[in-house]
Design a protein that fits this description.
The complex is a heterodimer of chains A (about 150) and B (about 280). Chain A has a domain of about 100 residues: Dioxygenase LigAB, LigA subunit (Protocatechuate 4,5-dioxygenase, Chain A). Chain A is about 60% helix and about 0% strand. Chain A has 11 helices and no strands. The longest helix of chain A is centred in the C-terminal third of the chain and has 16 residues. In chain B, about 35% of the residues lie in helices and about 25% in strands. In chain B, helix 1 packs across helix 4, helix 3 packs across helix 5 and helix 5 packs parallel to helix 8. Classes of the chains: A mainly alpha (about 150), B alpha/beta (about 280). At the A-B interface, helix 1, helix 3, helix 7, helix 8 and helix 9 of A face helix 5 and helix 7 of B.
């Protein structure tokens, strides 16, 4: 086994890079910790009797969990982008998609600025391009350069 | 002696399982995807592997946030299809190979890979969809399976280099098992896809194909791709491709490509599939 000399990854640089991707919430330890009960609540919907109790009275079921009022409101509204900000993870939240009878793609489309038919058409046409979607910093630098060009 | 005779890479999108289960796999939407697996289904019938070391990730089915093992190996007798919220898939139970699995687990730990041992769990689409892609709808799966579950959800996930090295160690483990077994290793997941946030729907045909080229090459450059590159280029869930590196690492330096297939899209995801065999 070859083990080339390679410096250990700097944890601070590593974590900072994960926050530099536009429109993306990487499921870091910080988010996992913050969203722990949101995700465990979602997991509880794997069981049929829990799903029934949740559907019968969503608010009452959520009140059984140590989840913030903000997260409860986001769960009731199915505001998935806010839930990602609060530490929700899509694989756990997908238990709520299936409780609602929503396909994964339809639920995912609600996090974009598109309707589901528009999203589906985008996927059929080859998906969203990585162009301009790779780095928040790079996008800012490009916008800055464009402004400078306009001004000069 | 047991030996690793081939490696298979494949996406494991849940919708592919739905397509098989509902008989839609030859319609206009799914037909072109499944056509790319016809070659492999015939090849699997001819080569008749005894055991698959199946590298996959659990999608909040067997594991929740209570326990997050980075690398876990299934040493149980059998595994049931998980209920992922729609009822379990109507596919056969997955038969394990506890003797080989425990041998690999012990060998890996002695090789300094500190594995988590699993004796009981349900297996979700990450594991059963690749079986359907390669074997269609048999009454009983024609192979035994050693599940190797990788955390690719909670960061940091294991590095590409670590995954590759694990593959190398799996090969040493298999080759030191005394029974004469034909073993394949499958790496599943990917290719480009993002299932979350305003950037959802990202796909990258060019990068995915560059990755497939790298897997075919006579070098191990792919092990050094950093996480951030997968994230930027292939979407947040494209990181699953590190699991293909465990498969590739188990095949040695030189490989022969037997088959390759790529299709966009399946739901939110780019479908990739490759069959490699060791060439040394």
């Amino acid at each position: 086994m070859t083990q080339p000399a390679k410096p250990t990854q700097n944890i601070h640089e590593y974590l900072a890079e994960l926050e530099d991707i536009p429109g993306t919430r990487v499921y870091t330890a910080a988010r996992a910790r913050k969203g722990y009960h949101i995700n465990q609540f979602a997991m509880s919907l794997m069981q049929g009797d829990n799903r029934e109790r949740f559907k019968a009275d969503e608010k009452a079921y959520l009140d059984e969990w140590p989840i913030s009022d903000e997260a409860k409101a986001a769960l009731l509204k199915r505001d998935y982008n806010t839930l990602l900000d609060l530490g929700g993870n899509v694989y756990f939240l997908s238990k709520l998609f299936s409780t609602d009878g929503l396909s994964f793609a339809e639920a995912v489309s609600t996090m974009t600025d598109m309707t589901f038919p528009e999203y589906r058409d985008m996927m059929l046409a080859g998906g969203r391009s990585p162009e301009g979607n790779r780095s928040i910093k790079a996008n800012r630098a490009a916008a800055g350069a464009a402004d400078t060009a306009k001004d000069s | 002696m047991a030996r690793i005779t081939a490696g298979v890479g494949s996406s494991h999108v849940p919708l592919l399982g739905v397509a098989v289960d509902q008989g839609k796999d030859r319609d206009d939407y799914f037909g072109p995807i499944f056509a790319g697996y016809d070659w492999t289904r015939e090849w699997e019938k001819e080569t008749k592997p005894d055991v698959i070391v199946l590298v996959y990730n659990d999608h909040a089915s067997a594991f929740d946030m209570k326990i997050v093992p980075t690398f876990a190996i299934g040493c149980g007798e059998r595994y049931k299809p998980a209920d992922e919220g729609w009822g379990p898939r109507q596919v056969p139970d997955v038969e394990g190979h506890p003797d080989l699995a425990w041998h690999i687990a012990q060998s890996l730990i002695l090789d300094e890979f500190d594995m988590t041992i699993i004796n009981e769990m349900d297996v979700d689409h990450g594991l059963t969809v690749p079986l359907s892609m390669m074997f269609d709808k048999p009454a009983k799966w024609p192979v035994k399976v050693v599940p190797l579950a990788v955390n690719v959800v909670t960061y940091p996930v294991p590095s590409g280099n670590r995954c590759w090295a694990l593959g190398e160690a799996v090969r040493r483990a298999v080759e030191s098992f005394p029974e004469d077994l034909n073993v394949q290793i499958w790496g599943t997941g990917g290719m480009s896809h993002q299932l979350q946030g305003p950037r959802a729907g990202l796909l990258n045909r060019e990068w995915d194909n560059k990755f497939l080229d790298m897997l075919e090459a006579d070098n191990d450059d792919a092990r050094w791709i950093p996480h951030i590159e997968y994230l930027r280029e292939t979407g947040s869930e494209g990181i699953e491709m590190v699991m293909w590196l465990i498969m590739r690492g188990a095949l040695g330096q030189k490989v022969r490509r037997l088959h390759r297939h790529y299709h966009i899209p399946c739901s939110n995801t780019a479908i990739g599939h490759i069959v490699l065999e060791p060439a040394e």
